[in-house]
Design brief:
Collagenase (Catalytic Domain), alpha/beta
Length: 138
């Protein structure tokens, strides 16, 4: 059984931890990953910028960062920028719930080995994200 603590450093309105946990669990099961712990941190622009600078050397905010902490058994943290998720939800004309779910799916797919550095990889990963998102939004 996977332990998935969710830490809210920023408010998400009526969206609670359950929907995010279901996103992680769905991808882990679908990708045949046996995890012990995957934590989720919901943060603001300033926090993810600091994390991105410190750990990845990037001087910009992003929407999600995934940190695999250990692989056998899997232990990881997914950091989601709620402020950026709000902007993206407006831009893509989707709910904040759907955008946060998409980001947690994206982060979990990275744990499963999916990459998005090249255009072909990004297209494949987006298709997989869409698969899990539609499955969960039924």
């Amino acid at each position: 059984m996977t332990h998935i603590p969710v830490r809210f450093e920023i408010r998400t309105g009526p969206i609670g931890a359950t929907v995010l946990r279901k996103g992680v669990e769905s991808v882990l099961k679908g990708e045949n990953l046996k995890a012990v712990a995957v934590s989720i941190a919901l943060v603001d622009d300033a926090t993810i910028l600091a994390v991105n600078k410190e750990f990845l050397g990037h001087d910009y905010a992003t929407d999600v960062i995934t940190f695999p902490l250990d692989t056998e058994p899997l232990d990881a943290e997914i950091v989601i920028n709620v402020e950026m998720a709000r902007r993206q939800a407006r831009e893509f004309k989707v709910s904040l719930r759907e955008e946060l779910l998409r980001l947690v799916i994206h982060g979990t797919l990275h744990l499963a080995g999916w990459r998005d550095a090249s255009a072909p990889d990004r297209d494949k990963m987006r298709a997989r994200e869409e698969y899990y998102l539609r499955k969960l939004l039924k």
